[in-house]
């Protein structure tokens, strides 16, 4: 994934957040979980900065959306404590895997700062963008 | 928030703790979660020092009292694992948001060392002080 | 500082990097050292990601460019070991304080990935942008 | 050392800082290096918060002022790298040991935010206070 694509993802996520009337932090990581681009919208709670990054990190490290990761990495799930590995992962929605047209994982987007439902909607709206 | 106001909050919290006959640690942070003032009362358990800071930090980073944060960052809440972000947050009461007369977040107070009920009562008694 | 201003700083820094023919990571933090915006240009070494953030953090926490910080936090400087506080600071150039028209500190920009000279030139070119 | 004494040390340090026209962070730790009281004066750079604590911690852990510690924990000193133990120590002045009337170590005070000379002067002025 190139920076130009990451920037278009940020832009799409920001538009969806504006449309929903919420203020969020948005993190894009590459397929190796390294940060590519980040923005914090005006008014977003400070605690959401790291959460947006950890959601993206969780999604790409296990190649599944953080909402799906939450089902297994939970006291009632099959891999309880998995959320405590890799520097701390995020067991709730808002981290979404980004795939290329061939289905390969290109990276992930993480959104935090609004309700979990809105965070997920924003991340999905961006991820639905066609790859450049 | 200025130091003079933080000092009056410490004083109010300490009076309430004396009134309840308990010994606590009290931390005040600003709106960006940076420490402003701190005291540990004689006899307070050492473990409460960091807890008082993390309660204040939790409250201000998510702009909600740590007792409310506890409801969402819990294995049965909607944001399980959120307590593991931002260096570790505190999912029980005793961290209270401080607001200005216009409703804006000025910082937070965190109290630890007594029962959670008393910690909350002390933090609220201080937070009820009028802003300088 | 608002996101719109942080984005214009990123854009100015990126243009200068393109002009110099180098690829860098660029971090913008607010006056309390919280991340506002970040990009990593295509081809930038991965190690530069955190360095760009630490340069910006160093500049804002001590309200001096990281090139000046380097003079004091050095074995021969007056504050040797200062670079080991606050989670690790950066004792070389590329972190530049951002000031408003009234001279107050608004935040900082950190650039890493090219030579220190180029990193500094890129950060300064962006910081010279008029505040929105 | 009791909180009442720590508070009188904070007050004496703050008066000296006002007298010198500087704004600093002031940390008091007990003989076991645990925080007792802390204030950040209005306008103090944020980076000084942790430094004030590390100066006090350094002084009490090695029972010597941090200005003396700097002579040994330095690339040219006899214990180079000692500054990297105990979570990171501070090899420059501003941390001063607090002794009781019998000469025993009661704790330490750390001051940061002004010039190293002023930081030292403020810490010494407070430490010269008679123990309660």
UniProtKB/TrEMBL annotation, chains A, B, C, D:
InterPro entries from the UniProt entry: GlcG_carb_metab_protein, PduO/GlcC-like, PduO/GlcC-like_sf
Stretches that traverse the bilayer: none
SUPFAM superfamilies: GlcG-like (SSF143744)
One Pfam family hit: HbpS-like
UniProt name for this protein: Uncharacterized protein
Natural source organism: Komagataeibacter diospyri
Classification of source organism: Bacteria, Pseudomonadati, Pseudomonadota, Alphaproteobacteria, Acetobacterales
């Amino acid at each position: 994934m190139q920076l130009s694509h990451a920037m278009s993802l940020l832009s799409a996520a920001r538009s969806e957040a504006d449309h929903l009337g919420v203020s969020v932090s948005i993190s894009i990581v590459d397929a190796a979980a390294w940060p590519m681009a980040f923005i914090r919208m005006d008014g977003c709670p400070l605690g959401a900065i790291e959460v947006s990054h950890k959601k993206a990190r969780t999604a790409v490290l296990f190649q599944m959306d953080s909402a799906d990761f939450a089902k297994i990495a939970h006291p009632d799930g099959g891999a309880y404590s998995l959320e405590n590995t890799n520097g701390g992962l995020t067991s709730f929605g808002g981290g979404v895997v980004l795939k290329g047209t061939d289905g390969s994982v290109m990276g992930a987007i993480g959104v935090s700062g609004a309700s979990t439902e809105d965070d997920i909607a924003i991340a999905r709206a961006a991820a639905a963008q066609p790859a450049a």
